[in-house]
Structures are given as structure tokens and as C-alpha cells.
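I am writing to request your help with a piece of structural work I have in hand. A protein sequence and the C-alpha cells that stand for its backbone fold form the material at issue. Please examine both parts with care and let me know of anything in them that strikes you as inconsistent. The record follows directly beneath this note.
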Amino acid sequence: MASVSGVAFYTGYLQNCVVFADLDDDGVYGTSEPQALTDAYGGWSIDVLESEKASVNIRLQPGGDCMDTSTALPLQVPLAAPPQCGIIGLYPTLKLLASDVLAATIPGSDADAQASAAIRLALGFDDATAFETCDFNPIEALWNGDESSDLTTYLSAIAALSATSELIAAVVAAADNSLYVPAWACALQSYAEQAIGLLTTPSLAGEGLPAQDMVEPMVAAAEKCTGVALSTGLVSSLNESAISMSTYLDEGVSEGVAAAEVPEDALVTYARFSATGQTTTNTGALGQALDEIAATGDIAAADDQLSDALVQSTTPQSLDALASNTEVPTPTRTPSPSPPPSPSSPPPVPPSIPPLPPLPPLAAFTTRMMMTFDADYTDTFVSELMDALAAAAGVSTEEFKQQVTVVSVTVASINVVMDIPDSLFTSPDSQLCGWMDGQSAAGMAMEPPEMANSVGDPVPFYCPTRKPPTEPPSPPSLPPSPPPSSPSPPPPPSPSPPSPEALPLTAPSSLSGGAVAAIVIIVLLLVIVAGYALYVKLRFSGRVGMYLSWRFAHSNPYLVWRYVPEERRNEMQRELFGSSSSPDYIANYGAPETPTASPEKGREEDAAKKTDAADAPGAEPADSSVAPKIADDTAAAASKEPPKTQYRV
């Protein structure tokens, strides 16, 4: 078993919330899935199998006594964390949604990295900012006195996005509260898709997702996902109200946290603005209008009343008045070290918590197409493209436009990003797969579209009807054995294993090519060293030590280590290889040149002998005529330089 642990927060730490390992990835808690309750500081710990630790998503289920300790408000929406993410919160949930969308076109590890990059861009951070939502706890950072602009930006984004998404969900699900979570999830998914779109628009890096751009797609996604059709006037009022609230909270949190002198004041300011946004739908004229629609179940009858209430309740003046009357608990810091989780078995799930519908993953029923066309952009290009795609799908253009979402269009290279439901590919009359393969694109006088992933790198196109399997097929299961009607006979003796000679010899598959090459080199070096040692042992038997002393010595007086005088080294050399005339010596160092005696020197030696003989007692006197001649020869010889005797070493 392996332990997975972390903290959970929405505005502040979430207490008494059910956290579970979503082993089947259906978004709903199952009784067989490991779970735990969060403590007073959002802490949680779950035991899973070691093989599941790196791939399981962790989800948090609202309901029951699940409460935000910073605002004292109950949590209304489910949250999640990707695998190996220690933080459960709003932006980790966004990362999981973005990763699921990206995983449809790029590998899992790359999808996770690109999802993190998309979140950074959505927050307005550039690529150089070392921010990872799964590693960053903004509440603890405030307690630590972090005054960076990145922290302020993150807190204001959490406050604005949580309130905006809850406002959209409350209006869309006004007549049917069971649609609240699906509407919220689809609005959040739209935000994740817009963040992914920033990956293909480098010029927007550092700007983030402004409220005036992100709200309208979020409202449209919530309507489309739930099947609720709001009137044009109500949609306009909802967009205006959501933008106003998002801007108010963004500016209020940024300025308030930056002006706070102590961490407690910063936390209170952040919590009060967040609570203001989250309680707007429960108070004042807007809360009253939503309650009346919930009672009647008819949103169309209260359309005008709801539109007016939305605009009135989200003006800066109304939000200021609500914020001034909002009280939040006094913040307390997590004890250090955090109290360990109880060793007892996890508490049972409170029976009052109803099962929630799973977050609708958009990637499960749509295919994201990123198409680059080699053509000149015109004002009617997108319209012509929609007509061509609708014809290929076998539906009308209007029907195609209702089901398809155009995420972005880049004019420079005509890069079109589009979400197309899989049903348009798989219908009997659809020819979209062929069109995407380039068989019909020539009808628009365009080159076949080049498929690309979320960062613009070309990838092969896979039709939803023939996408490659993401997992290898499981081996066929064995048929169940019939129940025995009588005691089974003893099993026959198992056959003896084959003899070693019959076993095939296979190379170890665990060694890579580099490891094999290294082993070969090491073996060769050992063979060379062993061969040299054997040669020395046999050649210099009994004198190995002397050979090694001579071979690995030197006669440089400036280097002390291994120094041996030259005379001694020459003596050892002669002892090892014999005299200079021996075959060993000649084989190693060559034969020296034999010195040639000069005739003058011979005459000098003869004269010396005769002189010694004349001086000897009883010797006859020397011939006087010879002396001058010897003297002359000696003088002549002395005037010449004697020849040098050369030896070859």
C-alpha cells in the first residue's frame, strides 16, 4: 500500500469533506473506493495500492458538514486533483479538466505539462514564472508573509472565478437545482478550454483571460451542457453581471491583500470578498428572484425580474454594501507539524450525502480539431469552412454550427481550432473522416488541413471511429470452470521440467546496448592486464619485483615519487636483460657501435712502453734517433681532436 495525502481548500481550508480515490474515474464515490474526511485544516490522507498512486485522480465531494473554514459557507461544488497532486482546489480541478482535453491529442505526460502551462497563461503568468498549482498553497504563503504579485494575482483569480462560475450555475439551474453541478462543471470546462487556446496564441502571454472574454463562452457552455435555453435578454444580463462581479472581486482582493500589514488582515480581506461573491445569489433582489423561480420551476415567467435583479445586485455599489455586512471567521494557522491522520479506519460516508453526477468531461464526447490551411484568409473563409464541414458531416450548416464550438481562428496561418462532437463523425451519412484526411478539402480550393496538437506541433489525425487504443487489449479470460458435482479426483502429477539442455538460451533482456558495450570493454581491459602480468611472471621469473621497480621508475631528480638514480636503473637493466651484447639487450635497445682506436693513440702507447723499458734497470739505452720522431708524432696527434666513440641507446 502507498499513502496519498495533501490539503484541500476552496477559498480557505475545507473541513469535514469526503475525499476519495476515484479508482474507476467516473467522478462518483463508490463504496469500495478508499476515502477519508478532511480535518480542520483541510488535511487528508488515503491509502491506495502502489500501482494506483501514480495514476489515480483524487476527488472531493461536497454536502453534509463540508464547510469552508475561511468563509463559514458550505461547499456547493465538487473539486478534484490530478494524479500525484497534493492540493485539491479550484485551479487543480481546472488543471485536471485541461489535461483530460489535451490527452485526446498528445501523450499523458505532455498533456499534464501543457495543462500546467495553460493555467499559468490563464493567470497572466509567463513561461518564466515557476508556478505549479499542485505545489502551491496560497493560504500558507500568506501566513509566511509572501508579498509577491504572483500570490495576489492567484488569490484574486480564485475569488473571481469561484463567484463567477457559481453565479452562472445558479441562473442556468434556477428552475431545476439538480442541474447546478453540471452547469458549474461545464462553465469551468469552458474556462479550461479557453486557457488551452492561449497555448496557440503566444502574443497573449502575460495578459491572462480577461473577464469580458471568458464569461460569454462559459454561459454558452453551461446552457449547452444542461439543455437550458435562456432568453437573449437574460443571457445579456448574466454576461454583464458576471463580468461586473469578476472585475469587482479581482480588483478588491488585489488591492486589499496588497494593503494589508499583517497576514491575518490579508486573509480576512480575501475571505470577505470571496464570501461576498459566493453569497450574492442568496441575498437581496437576486436571491429573492431565484427563490421564486425555484418554487415555480418556470424561469421564462420571471425572465425580466431575474434580468433586472442580476444587474442591480452586481453593481460595485451593491457589492460594496454586501461586503461591508459580510462577517468571516478569524483565521487560524495550521499547527506545525500538522496533526497526523487518525490511525483508525476512515469514518463512513454520512448517509445524508447524495451521490453527485460526475463532471462531464468534454473530451469524452468531442474531438478537438486544430487545422492549418495553406490558403489566403478572406472574410468568408470561416463560413465557407463551416459549410464544407457541414456538408461532409451530412447535416445542415445551422445544425452543424449549433453542435460545434469554434475555439479560435488565427488569421496569419489560418489556424482553426474547433470542437466537433464525435456523433458528427460516426453518423451513417458523415464523411468528415474522409474530409479530414484531405479527400474533400480540395473542393474549397485549399490544401488538405494539417492536424496539430495544442501547441501547434503536427500530429497524425485519427478519426473518432478509428482512434488507436489507449491501452493494450487485455488477454482473453479463461472460461469459468463448472462447479464440481462430486469430489474432484486428485490432480495428476505435474510433468517434470525439461532438462537444462532443452531450455533455450536467451540473452538477458534487461541489459541495454550501452551496458553490453561497457561490459565488453571492461572484459577486454582485464584480458590485456592479465596477459601482461602473465608475460612478466614468465619472462622475469624470480625477478618480477626488480622488473617492476625498473619499469615504473624514473631518473628525474625533480620528481621524488618513484625516483631511482640513473646508475642504479642501468644496473637493474643489465641484470634483467644481460650485457649490451646479449640478444635480449639488443632486441630491446639495439647493438652499440664498436669504438675505433686511433693510430696516434697506438703510437703513444708504444712510445710509453719503450720509455718504461728503457728506464728499467739493466735495459739497453734507447735509440736517440727514434725519440725525435716519437715526439713529432705525439705533437701532431695532440693537435688533432680525438674521434668520439658513439653508442646507440
In short: The chain has a mean pLDDT of 76.
